[in-house]
Amino acid sequence: MNEERLLQVLLSPHVSEKSTRLADAARQHVFKVAADATKPEVRRAVEQLFEVKVQAVRIVNTRGKAKRFGQRMGRRSDWKKAYVTLEPGYDIDLTGMES
Predict the structure, then answer these.
(1) Which residues of the chain have pLDDT under 50?
(2) Does some domain include residue 97?
(3) How many other C-beta atoms can be found within 10 angstroms of the C-beta atom of residue 75?
(4) What pTM, to 2 d.p., does this model score?
């Protein structure tokens, strides 16, 4: 796995009420990832970028919502997110990052 690919896997942290609760309670962080990202790629990318140990990775394909744009029905893009659980004793500080 080359380093350039690992830097393209994580797109941004996904900040929401649910992800904030997970980060506080269960050492889980949520990231928006590339559509073709795999669990091992996400694990290596998080470990390399944030210098932490990853315990588990769960990936979810999120469907885009059907929305009305004027008189036409449209659709938001589908995207993929990863729930990353860290080993005990590790934490990621995302307060300085934007989503």
Answers:
(1) none
(2) no
(3) 11
(4) 0.86
